[in-house]
Amino acid sequence: SQKIEQNSEALNIQEGKTATLTCNYTNYSPAYLQWYRQDPGRGPVFLLLIRENEKEKRKERLKVTFDTTLKQSLFHITASQPADSATYLCALAYSGAGSYQLTFGKGTKLSVIP
Amino acid sequence: NAGVMQNPRHLVRRRGQEARLRCSPVKGHSHVYWYRQLPEEGLKFMVYLQKENIIDESGMPKERFSAEFPKEGPSILRIQQVVRGDSAAYFCASSQHHRQTSPQETQYFGPGTRLLVL
Question: Which of A96, B49, B89, B117 could form a disulfide with B69 if both were Cys (CB 3.0 to 4.6 A apart)?
Fold first, then answer.
């Protein structure tokens, strides 16, 4: 069965630095990959989507890369701010029984230290 | 501009009781998805519904769990005879278009219902 691993449970970085989060998967590549942000006590919020034939996507201070050879996606937050502190989830979309299913990683808890 | 609404936000049940979780999708969305998040685990897909239809229930436990999305009213996730292992956060998400024809369709998540079984 498909396994998704996010590099670490927790990541601490200094304000202003670039945070890099990793999402690795096994077996076959997904049709597309999404990144979400989840704050405590709240539901996930969609951030970015990247398709299997795309190498990189950007949105403001966020950048996502997708390497199907390495079976890995990297999520970067540049010029990080304390407000970026949250848990970040990667989700892979596979064709399931009649629909595309999202399979989520456990998440990486990012703490940006002032 | 209301997003996905879920109620109750917190639900406490004793073993053997029934739990009913409600989800009102974003206005205009007719596709609803339920996920479960166990402590220290990732979100797990449970079921995908369209109005009056179950499209994909491959993630639903075979017993005690059921879901519906009637023509009128919210989607309901029902757990009968709850056990301690059912304690988790249950999230509902909605989208505007059919996931099969628009696989990149963004899903909007609700705040979740935290179920605690004593």
Answer: B49
